[in-house]
Write a structure and sequence with these properties.
The chain is mostly helical. The protein has 19 helices and no strands. Helix 8 packs antiparallel against helix 9 and helix 10 (197-214) packs antiparallel against helix 11 (217-233). It starts with 17 loop residues before the first helix and ends with a helix. 49% of the residues are buried. Mean pLDDT is 85; it is low at 1-16.
Length: 396
């Protein structure tokens, strides 16, 4: 149920009336989920005044958690992690497993957003163990979907598809639109990573339909963004540009500037595909300046597009430089799929320069990384469950 947002005077709140405070917390989360982060932050100030007045450890932990959620929406992940760890300590002392498990999930999401995938998976596994003990299938669906995204990012497609299968089963059992949409979106992402963009689009459009009915602006933005990526892969440039522009508009609307910049890179790739190299380079350089090491995932993606753009425009040394930067960062983040793209750009540029010895060594490295990524058993595992997940998607 949606709670109407309104300012609450701390002096007028009876601290004993837990329902009033819970309503305020629910209102903050509702406004944030609907994309009004500024209203959510104003309401969080009301909660801050109540906490200052009460000084109870549990409310202090609640405030830290909610403020961290706001910070994640603003892509301020480092500060969010600090807040969540303080909340984790307080909830542990209070033996509040229900609150603690939510903090673990948010920590996993924050670390995932910073491309710290091993840490992300560690927190997701902690959350999964507690949700299982609590028999909370709705939350198991959400955390399972998040685990699938993290596993897919490091190239463990077999693990990812198993996580998605489990998440989808819980979502179907619960009948909740939010969980169904999350799993469908994630399955679309996995299909896109595997190169099956037509299947990916079917998942994304199904997820978009659910989120449009629910009015979830940020989710609608994400679906438009990944629809644009798949349409680009299918060479439908006009539709891809339309969806990318809509995603950027919505991300700016909800003040998610990192994601807006991420999908400006999609526009840059569309410009490249259409031969608009100068226009693409302007976008790429602006995003590189914005990322500037602050946003690891954004930096990696900008470097990939920059390396590809430099190669296409015959600036081979520059392409190799971008590729070398990216390889180092991708290794640190343990992101095999994107590391492959950097190695490919490097091999292409060395071959174009007729640097045969160096190209051969680079190609050997590329093949070794690809072998790690494309293990036959993983590909076979996805093929075996594809029909099953597709039938469930149609049912949903």
């Amino acid at each position: 149920m949606h709670v109407e947002a309104q300012h609450i005077d701390a002096q007028q709140v009876d601290i004993g009336k837990k329902g009033d405070i819970d309503a305020l917390k629910a209102s903050i989360r509702t406004e944030r989920e609907l994309g009004d982060i500024e209203k959510a932050e104003l309401l969080t100030q009301d909660l801050q005044r109540i906490v200052d007045h009460s000084q109870t450890p549990e409310l202090q932990a609640d405030l830290a958690t909610i403020t961290a959620e706001n910070e994640i929406s603003r892509t301020r992940y480092s500060h969010a992690i600090e807040l969540l760890k303080s909340a984790e300590l307080m909830y542990s002392r209070l033996s509040n497993d229900f609150a603690l498990v939510h903090v673990y999930t948010m920590l996993g999401y924050a670390y995932y957003s910073m491309s710290e995938y091993p840490l992300s998976l560690d927190y997701y596994h902690r959350a999964e163990r507690i949700y299982k003990a609590l028999d909370d299938k709705k939350s198991l669906s959400i955390v399972g979907s998040y685990m699938g995204m993290a596993l897919g990012a490091i190239g463990d497609y077999e693990g990812a598809i198993m996580a998605y299968q489990t998440a989808l089963a819980h979502a179907v059992e619960q009948g909740s639109d939010a969980e169904k949409s999350q799993v469908l979106y994630s399955l679309g992402g996995l299909n896109a990573k595997m190169g099956d963009h037509r299947s990916a689009l079917a998942y994304f459009y199904s997820s978009l339909e659910i989120d449009t009915k629910r009015g979830m602006i940020q989710n609608i933005a994400f679906n438009n963004a990944l629809i644009a990526e798949s349409l680009l892969a299918l060479s439908d440039f006009e539709a891809a540009e339309s969806h990318a522009s809509e995603a950027i508009r919505l991300f700016n609307e909800v003040k998610s500037t990192e994601y807006a910049d991420m999908y400006k890179l999609t526009l840059a790739k569309i410009y490249i595909a259409r031969g608009g190299y100068d226009k693409a380079n302007e976008v790429i350089q602006n995003v590189l300046r914005t990322a500037n090491g602050r946003f690891p995932a954004l930096t990696l993606n900008a470097l990939v597009v920059a390396a590809q753009h430099a190669f296409i425009t015959n600036k081979y040394e520059i392409s190799i430089d971008y590729a070398n930067q990216g390889i180092e960062k991708a290794k640190q983040a343990e992101r095999l799929p994107i590391e492959v793209q950097f190695h490919e750009a490097k091999v292409n540029s060395l071959e174009a320069m007729s640097r045969c010895d160096a190209a051969f060594l680079a190609l050997k490295t590329l093949m070794r990384v690809k072998e790690q990524l494309n293990d036959e058993n993983k590909v076979e595992a996805i093929a075996n469950v594809q029909a099953q997940t597709e039938s469930v998607r149609k049912e949903l």
